[in-house]
Amino acid sequence: MTGAGGLLGGRLAALLHGQGFDVTAAHRHRAPPVGPAPLRVDLAGAPDVERMLDEARPDGVVHAAVISRAADCETRPDEAERVNARLPGLLAEACAGRGLRLVALSTDLVFAGDRSFVSEADPPDPLNEYGRTKRAGEQAVLLGCPRSAVVRVALVLGRGHGSRATSSESVVQALRGGRRVTLFTDEYRTPVDPESVADALARLLQGAATGLFHLGGPERVSRYELGLRVARAFGLPVDGVVPAVQSEHQGPDRRAPDVSLDSSRARRELGYEPRPIDTAIQESRPTRSS
Ligand SMILES: NC(=O)c1ccc[n+]([C@@H]2O[C@H](COP(=O)([O-])OP(=O)(O)OC[C@H]3O[C@@H](n4cnc5c(N)ncnc54)[C@H](OP(=O)(O)O)[C@@H]3O)[C@@H](O)[C@H]2O)c1
Fold first, then answer.
1. If you measure from the C-alpha of residue 238 to the centroid of ligand 1, how many angstroms do you get, rounded to a whole number?
2. In tens digits, what is the pLDDT along the chain, a chain of 290 residues?
3. Which of 68, 78, 171 to mutate to test the pocket of ligand 1 (most atoms within 8 A of CB)?
4. Which residues line ligand 1 (CB under 6 A)?
């Protein structure tokens, strides 16, 4: 698992380890979870990828290393291009050369968000650098490695790993700290928890399916509604969740209105059954990890 110090990558490494996979947690600065064997590596180029594979000797690779903050991708486009677009290609080439399975994580934000429940057959049309570089990374994986799958994960909620917070954790932590959160009433997602994603990854790693898979949650909700449900679940003041509309957004990145995912391919071919949103919300970490 690359990016095993990350919010989602770290949690997935822990969950797959818990399922009995012999996980090597490849991480850079941030610490991976306790359990999987740690391997520190800066994946700056092809030699680093080869060294990681030589040391870990995996049967398959889950690729989660990323520059994930949309604003960072706008302000540091060279780094976003190197990590999100080119690194997946290097990994794909190395995995193809060794006959390894590669499952790369991607995002709902490869879509422009102009319609609900997009499927794998719908053409991506990213609005920002994050989505654009992630889309380039997807293509590099699928072209470069015959035994590869790309999973587009929706907005993550529930329990994450490390110092970053999932979408539900950021609401709990703000409200508990006496801060208000402003969330869009006109921005729709199908939020999903790491447990559901880990389950799909396990099935992909043990199977042979290739190509694109959408992994969304069981419901399409607005960011604002999600915030209200988090506040209620933790007995926190709902008036701390402040409604706003996307046209009020200030920041370098453009926001997609509706990137809800149709996950029927994963349901059909992997037996994917995402867990209820309210179950995942309960698992959110109420305090910030260091
Ligand atoms: N979180 C979400 O809501 C979400 C939603 C949809 C899709 N995804 C996808 O899920 C995947 C994982 O995301 P995440 O939330 O875990 O991201 P994250 O919290 O930002 O973690 C990314 C990790 O990648 C590592 N990394 C970056 N550049 C690296 C390099 N050159 N060499 C080695 N490691 C490097 C970072 O290391 P450092 O510790 O050194 O910074 C960091 O720990 C990504 O593909 C993302 O697009 C996430």
1. 31
2. 999 999 999 999 999 999 999 999 999 999 999 999 999 999 999 999 999 999 999 999 999 999 999 999 999 999 999 999 999 999 999 999 999 999 999 999 999 999 999 999 999 999 999 999 999 999 999 999 999 999 999 999 999 999 999 999 999 999 999 999 999 999 999 999 999 999 999 999 999 999 999 999 999 999 999 999 999 999 999 999 999 999 888 877 788 999 999 999 999 999 999 999 999 999 999 998 86
3. 68
4. 3, 5-9, 28-30, 42-44, 64-66, 68, 83, 105-107, 134, 153, 155-156, 164
Q: How far apart are CA 21 and CA 116, in angstroms?
A: 35
Domains of the chain: 7-282 (3.40.50.720)
Which residues are CB-contacts of 64 (< 8 A; sequence separation ≥ 6)?
Answer: 1, 2, 3, 4, 6, 8, 9, 12, 105
Residue 1 to residue 10: CA distance in whole angstroms: 9
Tell me how far the alpha carbon of residue 6 is from its chain's centroid: 9
- The helix/strand/coil state of 63 is strand
Strand 148-153 with 101-107, pairing? parallel
CA of 118 to the centre of ligand 1 (A): 23
153 within 8 A of 217, measured Cβ to Cβ = no
Residue 177 CA, ligand 1 centroid: distance in Å: 26
Judge whether 261 and 215 are in contact, CB under 8 Å.
yes
- Ligand 1 centroid distance, CA of 27 (Å): 10
User: What global pTM score does this model have?
Assistant: 0.97
